[in-house]
Amino acid sequence: MTGTERRPLVAPAALLPAGVVLGLLVLVWAATTGPVQMLRDSGRRYVFQPPPPPPSPSNAGPTTGNLREVTKGIRPIADLAWLGDLIATTVLLLVCVAVLLGLRWLWLHRWHPPEAPQEVAFDVLPERVAEAVSRDRAAQLRAVAEGSPRNGIVACWLRLQASVQEAGVPPRPSDTAAEFVQRTLRSLDLDPRAIASLAGLYREARFSEHPVGEDARSAARAALETLHADLAARRVGP
Hints:
Structural class: mainly alpha
Oligomer: single chain
Strand order of the largest sheet: 1-2
Strand content: under 5%
Radius of gyration: 49 Å
């Protein structure tokens, strides 16, 4: 049994800007209209009324009396004027709190520049890489046999690099061409001696200035044949 959860129509944080605007309007109205009597005088206060004039000497009675007679003209009146000041102060404090909360909400929800996308490692199945390298075997052997030994070894390594890239293996930013292909071939559990030999011959043919002879071409071809023999054993293995 499924259902949908009802969300409130207006988030509480969305009401803060409206409260801030309303409080500012109240302050502006109070400043432009002057003092406002918020409550009528309904409290208790004591008002002293002057005693009646003394009686004429002809009918004057005794000049002294008790406390009840002396305070007979005084009546208590409650004074609640302080309550209006308390309410006004409370409203002002609430407006200040609303302004602070509104500013805090704006600060927390301020615009941030989008984060740069993180580089995600792309895992390629080893079988896919092995298939791509094996499929290009004839072109790799043909490349190492053509031209001068130097050019043949470099062309063979570039064919290996193209096969690895065709399988979808992404190079690392710090990888050189030799490191990229060598790291990928090692992940296939091939003979590390053949990989290191072919990579060393590629670096020598690519960056050295001394002559590269046919012995280097033969060593590169032998290392390449060893790699493909390992790939073939991998396909027919358990």
